[in-house]
Amino acid sequence: MSRDFQYEESRDSRKERLLAIRLPEALYSRIDEFCEAMKLEVPWVRMTRSDAVRWLLTVELQNDGRLPGSTA
Amino acid sequence: MPRKRKEKEVRLTVRVPASLLRALDSHASGERNGTGGKNLSRASAARQILENALEDGGQRLKALLLGQLIVNTVKATEHHGATTLATVRELLAGVPKGDLDAALFQLEKEQSLLLTPNHNGDIVTNRERSNALHDPLRGDLLYAQLRPNGRKRR
Questions:
Q1: What's the number of domains chain A is made of?
Q2: ipTM of the modeled complex
């Protein structure tokens, strides 16, 4: 793998894209409940609904071995 | 025959790293999901992952986050590789004692941290003693030590 390609690859990984999803209302409320629980349990972590979705997807895909890196 | 009422859906747009989208696409592929070559859409894959993640009310993920917070707290406050459990408790004061104790034992089991009754002959004060973690075999554990080659948390 050439150095330029690696550089482009890592630069591309840092780029952000928009993910649009339709969620059933029940799941949407569960995400809200999760955010509320996080606010109570770890008040210094500010977690919005979007943060929660991003974090949940990241952790699950990392556990799955689909996404490199650790959340620690 | 009455038609089944479709559940109301809410549209959500989230900014995510490109690498996350690629991982999501890979997860959504037919090969991964074994749906006979039929691919899931990216949105369906995301929905499925979120449903799995919140299956138990997010307990597993909350435990994971708490573990990460403890390791980061120890990393941020360690002196010669260890910090007192009193410091960890003070900094994570919002976490219930039972949850914190369970998470500390779990981290030791996962070999991310080592809990010890003493460290480099440090003088033990009442502050440390009152925040100790009791272990039936090792007695009162006062310090959390980073493992030099600790297993990376998943």
A1: 1
A2: 0.77
pLDDT of residue B7: 76
Task: Pull the structure tokens for residue A66.
Answer: 């689909």
Does B30 fall in a domain?
Answer: yes
Task: Answer whether residue A42 is part of any domain.
Answer: yes
Of the two residues A50 and B7, the one the predictor is more confident about is A50
For residues B138 and B64, state if they share a domain: yes
Cβ–Cβ contact A41 with B under 8 A: yes
Identity of the residue in A17, A25, A66 whose CB atom sits nearest the CB atom of B7: A25
Assigned token pair, A40: 């109570």
B113-133 pLDDT tens trace: 999 988 877 778 888 888 888
Give how far the C-alpha of residue B95 lies from the chain's centroid of Cα atoms, to the nearest Å: 13
Task: Give residue A68's domain range.
Answer: 19-72
Q: Do A41 and B62 touch (CB under 8 A)?
A: yes
Note whether A65 contacts B: Cβ–Cβ < 8 A: no
Give the C-alpha separation, B26 to B28, whole Å.
Answer: 5
Share of chain B above pLDDT 90, in %: 26
Question: Which of A42, A59, A64 comes nearest B69 by C-beta?
Answer: A42
